[in-house]
Design brief:
alpha/beta, Ribosomal Protein S8, Chain: A, domain 1, Rossmann fold, 2 domains, 6-stranded parallel β-sheet, 4-stranded antiparallel β-sheet, 14 strands, PhoH-like protein, PhoH2-like, nucleotide-binding
């Protein structure tokens, strides 16, 4: 693939153009996306204009932004050359991530870790390859692999639980742990659900659905059902952890802001030999009764000085759901600060 900077096409042109030539026209079609939707996404995000002529893409606009768009298009084309698809989230990730440290990561001591491929952080599961989309997510995933206990704290939609479950599935597939245990406090989010009919599992399933959703993204349905039946994968309310010692397991506590101080202490002290624990939560969404202290806040205060326990924090900038979610979170945060 060739890149060159062209002079202005006319005396009225606002800036030079960047010309990119792609040898494989089939891959170029995939790069552009259906109805050129990938090009449109890049144009909107960077404020440039991209014109396709044959096997060439010409980028117009501010020179610095043109260069950024050219680098992005080159990275995405290399991704296609390696046999991986390009989706909207790949464009989003490349625009958000700082790639400056990847060379060092590829050649440094971390290069022995299975999550690194050429300096990129990747999580391999049975159904898909998961890649962090922000620098905060990237740092979080590294800590999930490197520490026996890790906290992920921040607003909804920042990938805290999704990435934690992905790493758990990856470590299970690679044989680093024997089982996966996912749990949440069974606390109602401001509503009274009343009596729920059915078995014990059916009663708590509505609280656990986000964890099922994440697992379904990473494991084929039949395999997941078998692993659940064998109790190799468990999804249970936090209260069910009492009295257990969890050895050689990957354990995730989701929505930890809704655990009381005593529940948090109970959970953290379940850590057994060969196990890893991940605790995720959002301090702004506590659903505990008024006057009951969140165990997540106490854990932050008490455990921060302990080595080998990592704390990663996310903000609205790390939201990877619909762009409106980030705007909503920022609006509420601003209101809290001014109120």
């Amino acid at each position: 693939m060739a890149t060159s900077v062209l002079p202005p096409s006319s005396e009225h042109a606002p800036a030079p153009e960047v010309l990119l030539e792609f040898p494989d026209n089939r891959l170029l079609i995939e790069l552009c996306g259906e109805f050129d939707r990938h090009l449109a996404e890049i144009e909107q995000r960077l404020g440039v204009q991209i014109i396709r002529r044959g096997n060439q893409l010409i980028v117009h606009g501010d020179p610095e932004l043109c260069q950024k768009a050219a680098e992005l298009l080159s990275l995405l084309y290399e991704r296609l050359e390696s046999g991986r698809p390009v989706e909207r989230e790949d464009i989003d990730r490349e625009l958000r991530l700082d790639r400056s440290d990847e060379e060092a990561a590829a050649s440094g001591p971390d290069s022995q870790m299975e999550m690194f491929t050429g300096g990129k952080v990747e999580i391999k599961t049975r159904k898909k390859l998961v890649e962090p989309r922000t620098d905060a997510q990237k740092a979080y995933v590294k800590n999930l692999y490197e520490n026996e206990m890790a906290f992920g704290i921040g607003p909804a939609g920042t990938g805290k639980t999704y990435l934690a479950v992905a790493v758990g599935v990856s470590m299970f597939i690679q044989g680093h742990v024997d089982k996966i245990i996912l749990c949440r406090p069974a606390v109602e989010a401001g509503e009274r659900l009343g009596f729920l009919p059915g078995t014990q599992e059916e009663k708590v399933d509505p609280y656990m659905q986000p964890l099922y959703d994440a697992l379904n993204d990473f494991l084929p349905g039949k395999q997941l059902a078998k692993l659940k039946e064998e109790k190799t994968i468990e999804i249970a309310p936090l209260a069910f952890m009492r009295g257990r010692t969890l050895s050689n397991a990957y354990v995730v506590l989701d929505e930890a802001q809704n655990a009381t101080t005593m529940q948090m202490k109970m959970f953290l002290t379940r850590l057994g030999e060969g196990s890893r624990m991940v605790i995720t939560g959002d301090r702004t969404q506590v659903d505990l009764p008024r006057g009951v202290q969140s165990g997540l806040q106490d854990a932050e205060r008490l455990l921060a000085p302990i080595p080998k326990i990592s704390f990663n924090y996310f903000t609205a900038k790390d939201v990877v759901r619909h762009p409106l979610v980030a705007a909503i979170i920022e609006a509420y945060d601003k209101d809290e600060m001014t109120g």
